[in-house]
Write a structure and sequence with these properties.
About 55% of the residues lie in helices and about 0% in strands. It has about 170 residues and is mainly α. It has one domain. It has a two-stranded antiparallel ribbon with strand order 1-2. Helix 1 runs antiparallel to helix 2.
Length: about 170
Amino acid sequence: MASGNAHHATGWAAGVVAAVVVARAGAAGPAYLGAVAALACGVAGGSAPDWLEVAWWTRSRRRWIAHRSLTHWGIGWIVLLAWSYCRLGHRPLAAPLFGFALGGLVHLLADWPNPLGVPWIAGRHSLNWWNSGRCDLLIVGASWLAAWFVVVHGMPHGLREWLPRASP
């Protein structure tokens, strides 16, 4: 399990990727509101598998389900990501749902190296690389490297003009 700060940082990276994908798909809408919504929901999705377990409607704020159970189920996040991607440009909520699903999926990827693992299909699977809270910098760095790659290679041409140019 990555730390809360690592999940927030990877959520920001997922939000950036989601915004670029939404803009590239032509689903950003007027004033790029769809891309902004995808960014914001990607950030929220980065920590969603953890906060969705909390019973916010009770005074005790205890978990209503076990940690790393239903909210960490990989197939659910992948299905939501695929469904929302296929509806980009056709449904107004597709862009924010896409960002939310991408953030949630990145959360699972950050938790996967932990010995506790995540339930991808039926049972939990772990890469068993390190214990909780270790190598957060590696996880965050990898997510931001992926975001940088998507921004550089997947940015719509109209938005590329806004990026600073490297001087020779």
